[in-house]
Amino acid sequence: MTWFQEQDKTSHLLLPTWQILCHCCFPKHPFHTSSVFVCQIEKYVKDSLNVEMAQLQQSAVHNHTAAILDLGTNLLTQTAQHTRKLTDVEIQVLNQTSRLEIQLLENSLSTNKLETQLLHQSTEISKLHDKNRLLEQKMQELESGHHDLQQLVARQSSVITELQTHLDQATGNNSILLSQQQQLTDTVNSLLKLCSKDRGAGVVPNSNLAFKQRDSSHEERKYRDCSEIFQAGFNNSGVYTIHISTQETKKVYCNMEAAGGGWSVIQRRKDGTMDFQRTWKEYKMGFGSLFGEHWLGNEFVFLLTSQRPYNLRVEVTDWDGQQAFSHYDRFYIGSEKQNYRLFLKSHSGTAGRQSSLVINGADFSTKDMDNDNCICKCALMLTGGWWFDACGPSNLNGMYYSHGQNMGKLNGIRWHYFKGSSYSLRATAMMIRPAVF
Ligand SMILES: [Ca+2]
Q1: Of 164, 320, 338, 366, which sits most exposed with the smallest number of CB within 10 A?
Q2: Which ranges carry the Fibrinogen C-terminal domain (predicted)?
């Protein structure tokens, strides 16, 4: 029962004091004695009621206080629970916050590192840019230089071509003059013979007929090489025309002085005016000036040496003026299909005890055709086209080095068993002549 319900139950007892007191207000009433008694009872009741009322009121206040205390306790308990929960949540939030802070710190450290790296890389990139710019400038300078050189080379090439044409004309004239001289000599000789005969027989010579006969016989004569020209009585060294086949002719320099003469020259170096770092095709067809440095051409040498047995003579000159030679009793080269392979027999001479050409033979190699026995490319390394082995003891088509520059050069003009492998020679000549001469 709540305090308020108790209040309701006792409310009929809480009468106003003036109503209780009214019965004792008339002392001279006929029923005075009984009235006094009643009045005393009434007073007693009234006091008792007052006491009871006070007790009831006190008890109600107590109950009320207890209820309020219960309520307060409940509230406190709930508050404590909420506080605990709040504390837990706060701890969790704090933990989370510290974790986030740590992560943030780590991230900022990583960012710093990355920034440093980025800065470093930027510096490197700018350095590279600078280098690149320098290289580009150099490249441009080189390109302009190259352009100038190209123009110069073009001009020089045209001059060389012009000179070559003049030279060819002069050579042709020289050959014609020589043959005319020979014809005249022959004609004079035959005229003299006829005169002596006619003197004996008393007949006048038909000189015109004799001239015609001599002329036609000479025109019909086709020389296969310099040995035949020599044997025909032409003893001066120079450029002559030979008949490789019935149709094909070729101009050749004939050496009519060395070791009895009649040599067809197939290679010559003497002053470094010709570039010998050439392609397979150029070595095939020949290049250079016949009066100066040249390579006759592998195809012609193959055609010549496949007709009959030939000797080879290699003449070498060093920078002290010393001359020497190597002689081979048999020399021929294979066809283009056989890579113009070299075949040799019997070496002798003054340019070394052993042969500086690969005596067992070797295929021909150029800068654009690697047929050597090296895993490298000898023609590129040592320059020139040659019968390289791996790479072998000779290369007469190497770089030309002038006097003072010719020592310690592996890519020079080498003839190992004459002057060693790093000595570049001053002059060379390779020439062939039939074995039967
Ligand atoms: Ca090779």
Answers
A1: 320
A2: 217-436
Instruction: Please give the distance, rounded to the nearest whole angstrom, from the Cα atom of residue 368 to the centre of ligand 1.
Output: 11
CATH C-level class of 226-434: alpha beta
* 210 pLDDT above the threshold of 50: no
Q: Give the distance (Å) from ligand 1 centre to CA of residue 371.
A: 6
CA of 391 relative to ligand 1 center, distance in Å:
9
36 φ, ψ to 5°?
Answer: -60, -40
380 C-alpha to ligand 1 centroid (Å): 10
CA 321 / ligand 1 centre spacing (Å): 35
Determine the distance separating the centroid of ligand 1 and the alpha carbon of 343, expressed in angstroms: 20
What is the pLDDT averaged over residues 362-367?
96
